[in-house]
Model the fold of this input.
Amino acid sequence: MDISETKQGIYKSKGGLIRSFVSIEDGMIKEITISGDFFMFPEEAIFKILGQLKGTPANREEIQKNIEAIYQKEGIQSPGTAPSDFTESIMKALEV
Amino acid sequence: MEEWRFIDFGLVDIRDMMAMDEAILKGDGGNTFFFWTPKKSIILGFFQKADVELDLTRCRDYTITRRISGGGIAFSDERCRQINYGVVGTIDNELFPLDIIESYKQICGVLIDTLVHYGLNAAFRPINDIVVDNKKISGNAQTRWEGKLLQNGTLLLDFDIEEMLRISNIPKEKFLDKKIASIREGLTWLDRELGEQRDMEEVKDIIKKKFEERFHIRLKTAALTREERDLTNNLLPKYYSHEWVYR
Done:
């Protein structure tokens, strides 16, 4: 995705910096990508999180609930970074 | 005493090295400790976007690739005074703890023991850094695959901090000078700490010895296996591809 046309949110968790790039359409997340120096096992699960978030209502509760669901399903471990940290980064993008 | 494999890849192209790195994790070579020194290059962490993290117009003479583990950019300038290491081990909950932070701590302990050998005040700073007097001297990154772990890390002997700042995508107008100053003050390297240049081979020998002591094993030099070489050849196109690096 072309990040120049999205809003950016930056949030630093204990495990690293999370930069979110988000575009919104009709109150839903249309496109989203994340860049950062955090850790996540398995790594590929990030794509499942991003896929899940597309089409999710752009509010804190829905975003966090959806991230947590993927954490559960994929057995994600991310030392120093929690679903709430990703949510915070995305919310910062939405507040821009 | 148990023997583990040891390999010193020397000065390498990081695209080739990252392919071998993944091949050692996924191959049949068993527990392995290895060294390499990267040529002028930038390795992105798995979750980093090149155009977000780098000022790409200033990176044209750098080789850029991505690794399979998370964490931040590994930047290597043309001085080539960095010792990079890799460890592949079966997670046995003794030598290689299941707990992620504990396993970082165990492996980083090898470099800490080395720095202490040189009289430095080295410590582990969770999640993945080693510091000397609270300044980062080593960054480390781990991934896991089918009951095994792969940890890569670097020990800086010398480092061109101004060059790293030059190619990094730090929005200069937004970030305060304070932020840049904290990056400058937050990093250090062995030559600076010791006030003299040590021979890289000598430092590697100490690390190797500290590794053997910490893991109670003997390191024995051996080459990649046939399977690992085949895996490497299959993985090389990925590490050279635009899709992998600039996704």
Summary: DSSP finds three helices and three strands in chain A. The domain at 3-95 of chain A is CATH 3.30.390.50 (Enolase-like; domain 1). The helical segments of chain A are 45-53, 60-74, 83-95.
